[in-house]
Amino acid sequence: AQSVTQLDSHVSVSEGTPVLLRCNYSSSYSPSLFWYVQHPNKGLQLLLKYTSAATLVKGINGFEAEFKKSETSFHLTKPSAHMSDAAEYFCVVSDISGANNLFFGTGTRLTVIP
Amino acid sequence: DVKVTQSSRYLVKRTGEKVFLECVQDMDHENMFWYRQDPGLGLRLIYFSYDVKMKEKGDIPEGYSVSREKKERFSLILESASTNQTSMYLCASSSLPRAYLGSEKLFFGSGTQLSVL
Predict the structure, then answer these.
(1) pLDDT tens across B74-101, in order?
(2) Rounded to the nearest 5°, which phi and psi values hold at B19?
(3) What are the φ and ψ backbone dihedral angles of B40, each rounded to 5 degrees?
(4) Which residue of B103, B107, B112, B113 to mutate against A (max A Cβ within 10 Å)?
(5) CA-based nearest distance B84→chain A, Å
(6) CA-wise closest residue to A66 among B21, A57, A53, B49
(7) Mind listing the pLDDT tens digit for each residue in B108-117?
(8) Among residues B13, B43, B17, which one has the least CA distance to residue A6?
(9) What single-letter DSSP state applies at residue B85?
(10) Is B33 an 8 Å CB contact of chain A?
(11) Would the pLDDT of A100 be above 70?
């Protein structure tokens, strides 16, 4: 069975410093993995996705994530945080086609301190 | 850009009322979804639909029903609202055929914050 764990419910960084949002997954098959971002009062927006191509995935707004099978991780990073990055981030795993098999993490709220 | 529109941003209802949440997408997508978002629980799938008049239960369908009479519109119905249904409800859509669900991104609406008193 698949599942996803976001290790931090809240991360706080200073503007201009690196961002690391951690995600570990459990999957019986080769998973598809996604990161979504949700800004206040908005719906979720796709940041990036991994679907068995390159293990380092680049997304929008300077974010990237690395798929590490040996560590079952898909951590989201950004070299330099911007105030506009303050939002909630969701890691999502899917390994069998079908809507019932999209599993959302519990979310990580990112705060950026000026 | 794909637009998924949820008819209400905030809704306040009383226990026992029948509640309709409406969602419309403008890109002719085959698949539409209703999720519930609660703090600390992430998103949980209530129902999804892969075609007009077709629906499938998600992880937490109890107390909910859905209707898809037209391709662009997917309605979530709370037959008799209860306080434990107070939550943020998110509608989403995607374009791929049902066999490829899970490998393609979802397009989300802005959500409806429902409070049941």
Answers:
(1) 999 999 999 999 999 999 998 876 556 5
(2) -120, 135
(3) 80, -5
(4) B103
(5) 19
(6) A57
(7) 999 999 999 9
(8) B43
(9) G
(10) yes
(11) no
